[in-house]
């Protein structure tokens, strides 16, 4: 069964997310958006790497932060802000692309719990490089009209 109510929510979120200056600065893109899920990815560039040639941990953290918040926002189209996240870096992120897949574990009226996994693409194969669990504060849009989901 098609979720016809999700299309305007998805369009609104995509539009808001791509207005975020840091998304543009990093070169990240929303590669998939579903109700309760978000996939962000970024291609390898020299300015996103640390001194050993791996993606900087800050890039991984940014993808987790944004993807988990976006995933929470997709549930009801409600604005959301990161309250907290725990990030485990599992292995160095090398390769040509980083992909972060976030999924809502438990939606909530005030706080949603969202998990995320980050993979790097090396010669077409994905390598798991990070995992995270986030608490996302759900914001009433009337109280925060300028919050970008």
UniProtKB/TrEMBL annotation:
Taking the record's annotation, the residue ranges forming a coiled coil are none
* Key word rRNA-binding present: no
A single MF term (Gene Ontology): fatty acyl-CoA hydrolase activity
Asked if the Swiss-Prot or TrEMBL record annotates the protein with the keyword Hydrolase, the reply is yes
Q: Show where the Thioesterase domain sits.
A: 52-120
Which UniProt keywords are listed? Hydrolase
- Signal peptide boundaries: none
Q: Which InterPro entries match?
A: ACOT13 (IPR039298), HotDog_dom_sf (IPR029069), PAAI_dom (IPR003736), Thioestr_dom (IPR006683)
Recorded hits in NCBIfam families, A to Z, give: unchar_dom_1
Name the protein family.
Answer: Belongs to the thioesterase PaaI family.
Supply the name of the protein: Thioesterase domain-containing protein
């Amino acid at each position: 069964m098609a979720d016809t109510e999700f299309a305007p929510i998805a369009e609104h979120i995509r539009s808001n997310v791509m207005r975020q200056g840091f998304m543009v600065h990093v070169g990240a893109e929303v590669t998939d958006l579903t109700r309760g899920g978000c996939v962000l990815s970024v291609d390898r560039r020299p300015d996103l790497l640390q001194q050993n040639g791996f993606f900087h941990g800050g890039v991984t953290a940014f993808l987790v932060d944004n993807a988990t918040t976006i995933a929470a926002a997709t549930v009801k189209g409600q604005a959301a802000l990161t309250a907290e996240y725990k990030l485990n870096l599992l292995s160095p992120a090398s390769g040509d692309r980083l992909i972060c897949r976030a999924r809502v574990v438990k939606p909530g009226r005030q706080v949603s719990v969202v998990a995320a996994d980050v993979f790097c693409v090396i010669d077409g194969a994905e390598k798991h490089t990070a995992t995270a669990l986030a608490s996302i504060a759900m914001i009433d849009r009337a109280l925060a009209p300028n919050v970008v989901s």
